[in-house]
């Protein structure tokens, strides 16, 4: 039976595949071995799905199943015969399987320019146990990973997120390398609506923001080519993963010519983006402040050396076009911290009218961290004639009570939650509907009031408490009734205790 991402145990099955390599290499290495194989299986399954579509089309011509253009025209990667999964499965038990996987990767790179130089090609190395590699190939072969079978989700990113969590302790991970859950990405995209222009993510990870932006454009009748994608990523392996993720979706993206530190080596120095979407690493210390003290990006104050949160925020503001808008995830500490000048920077952002909206998110949204998070929306032009003149106010949304538990430990925002938050923001921001404050959920607040509150941006401080249904029973009467009921229950308890003692005594056992 095929196991798909909709079935329980999808990630667990992949974990078993990765775990088969335990002992033959470090956890940090075998994660990427498995991800490379998953990529091969994904593009092979997607190729086979397209082949089936061609064969089922009555108007298809003879030989079209092997016509490269019939695949690339549908943004499906062309997979050479020696790189297709059935071919690898058939050789999984051969001693040369590592070499065959490397050759498959090279064949795919030769046939797809966008992947040139980024696929892993180290499966033939001596320290990789070939018997275990064969076991992994067999196991992954039982999992359907094509777009139909996986629901077209950001599969590589999702798997990478899961593996980050599983391998965090083994790799000594700390701080903020977190894949952004799909529901958060969807919310960010729905709020800023990137239909046309330059989309930038300065810490793009596996590329989930770009994937969701393309889906948004397509779903709203736009053309994917109307958005230009720019990104940067520090981790070389994740940078390659992002390029792989974009390639399998036909997204042309400028990720720079290498992986690089966004602060120390800004690869898009002259970029002014129309839309910025990001989930920067949370609370990162030692980000290089000493070397960057005079940087032009710190227009609102030098970020503290021990925390990069306000370095990320100012970096994104620096890269916004005059009419641009940014939506990004931040640790909740960014809303109220006054450590090392952070409060002063935040006060200047408020004073300049740059902060459009703050959303407090519910807990347990990430696989790999329990840090409570929020969304910031920042806009340079808040007096656009097409929108309400909101230059002297900002919107607070407290969404901490939203979300649905997907597992015992993991929560997600469902479509109704996303729509409620995004619609509230759009209603406040635009002229097209009448916005109203909702006690306990949202409130539009004048900047003067925010300043009076010390520029603390915690939504709960402004939206108030939701009105609960009033208890019609008078407190004294209620306590009298409950006390009487408790007394009756105590009496019944004593009677039951006496009865048990009597029965035990009759059996010769006395308490």
Structure in words:
With 511 residues, this protein is of the alpha/beta class. It has helices at residues 10-19, 27-56, 69-72, 85-90, 97-111, 130-140, 147-150, 155-171, 182-192, 208-219, 236-247, 309-318, 342-351, 415-429, 447-452, 460-463, 475-506; strands spanning 197-201, 227-231, 253-254, 273-278, 320-331, 355-360, 373-379, 393-398, 404-405, 411-412, 442-446. The strands form two sheets. Strands 3-2-1-4-5-7-6-8-11 form a nine-stranded mixed β-sheet. Helix 11 (236-247) links the parallel strand 2 and strand 3 (253-254). Helix 1 (10-19) packs antiparallel against helix 6 (130-140), helix 9 (182-192) packs across helix 10 and helix 9 runs parallel beside helix 14 (415-429).
Which key phrases capture this entry?
511 residues; alpha/beta; Ferritin; Rossmann fold; two-stranded antiparallel ribbon; globular; disordered N terminus
The string of secondary-structure elements, in order, is HHHHHHHHHEHEHEEHEHEEEEEHEHHH
Report the portion of residues in β strands.
Answer: 5-15%
Tell me the domain tally: 3
What would you give as the CATH superfamily of the largest domain?
Answer: Vaccinia Virus protein VP39
Number of strands: 11
Outline:
With 511 residues, this protein is an alpha/beta fold. Helices cover 41% and strands 11% of the residues. Residues 1-8 and 168-176 have low confidence and may be disordered.
Question: How would the blueprint of this fold be written?
Answer:
Elements: H1 10-19, H2 27-56, H3 69-72, H4 85-90, H5 97-111, H6 130-140, H7 147-150, H8 155-171, H9 182-192, E1 197-201, H10 208-219, E2 227-231, H11 236-247, E3 253-254, E4 273-278, H12 309-318, E5 320-331, H13 342-351, E6 355-360, E7 373-379, E8 393-398, E9 404-405, E10 411-412, H14 415-429, E11 442-446, H15 447-452, H16 460-463, H17 475-506
Helix pairs in contact: 1-2, 1-6, 2-8, 9-10, 9-14
């Amino acid at each position: 039976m095929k196991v798909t991402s909709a079935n329980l145990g999808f990630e667990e099955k992949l974990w078993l595949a990765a775990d088969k390599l335990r002992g033959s290499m470090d956890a940090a290495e075998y994660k990427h071995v498995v991800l490379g194989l998953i990529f091969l299986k994904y593009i092979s399954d997607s190729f086979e799905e397209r082949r089936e579509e061609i064969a089922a089309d009555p108007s298809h011509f003879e030989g079209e199943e092997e016509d490269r253009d019939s695949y690339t025209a549908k943004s499906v990667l062309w997979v050479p015969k020696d790189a297709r999964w059935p071919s690898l499965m058939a050789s999984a038990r051969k001693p040369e399987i590592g070499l065959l996987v490397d050759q498959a990767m090279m064949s795919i790179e030769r046939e797809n320019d966008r992947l040139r130089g980024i696929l892993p090609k180290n499966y033939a190395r001596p320290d990789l146990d070939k018997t275990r590699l064969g076991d992994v190939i067999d196991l992954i072969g039982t999992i359907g990973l094509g777009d139909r079978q996986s629901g077209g989700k950001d599969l590589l990113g999702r798997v990478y997120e899961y593996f980050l969590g599983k391998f965090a302790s083994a790799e000594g991970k700390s701080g903020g390398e977190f894949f952004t859950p799909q529901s958060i990405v969807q919310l960010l995209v729905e709020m800023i609506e990137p239909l046309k222009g330059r989309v930038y993510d300065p810490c793009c990870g596996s590329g989930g923001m770009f994937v969701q932006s393309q889906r948004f454009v397509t779903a709203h009748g736009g053309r994917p080519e109307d958005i230009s994608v720019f990104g940067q990523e520090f981790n070389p392996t994740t940078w390659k993963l992002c390029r792989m993720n974009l390639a399998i979706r036909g997204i042309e993206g400028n990720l720079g010519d290498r992986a690089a530190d966004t602060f120390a080596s800004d690869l898009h120095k002259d970029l002014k983006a129309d839309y910025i979407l990001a989930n920067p690493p949370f609370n990162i210390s030692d980000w290089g402040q000493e070397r960057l003290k005079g940087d032009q990006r710190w227009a609102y104050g030098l970020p503290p050396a021990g925390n990069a949160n306000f370095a990320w925020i100012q970096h994104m503001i620096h890269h916004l076009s005059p009419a641009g808008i940014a939506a990004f995830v931040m640790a909740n500490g960014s809303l109220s911290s006054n450590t090392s000048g952070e409060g002063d920077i935040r006060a200047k952002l408020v004073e300049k009218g740059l902060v459009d909206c703050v959303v407090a998110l519910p807990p347990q949204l990430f696989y790999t961290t329990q840090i409570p998070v929020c969304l910031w929306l920042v806009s340079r032009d808040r007096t656009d004639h097409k929108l309400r003149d909101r230059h002297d106010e900002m919107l607070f949304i407290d969404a901490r009570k939203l979300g649905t538990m997907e597992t015992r430990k993991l929560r997600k925002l469902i479509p109704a939650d996303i729509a409620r938050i995004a619609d509230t923001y759009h209603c406040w921001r635009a002229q097209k509907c009448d916005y109203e404050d909702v006690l306990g959920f949202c409130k539009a607040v004048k900047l003067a009031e925010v300043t009076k509150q010390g520029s603390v941006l915690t939504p709960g401080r402004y939206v108030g408490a939701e009105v609960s249904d009033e208890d019609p029973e008078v407190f004294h009467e209620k306590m009298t009734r409950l006390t009487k009921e408790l007394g009756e229950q105590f009496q019944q308890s004593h009677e039951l205790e006496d009865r048990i003692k009597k029965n035990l005594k009759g059996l010769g056992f006395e308490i």
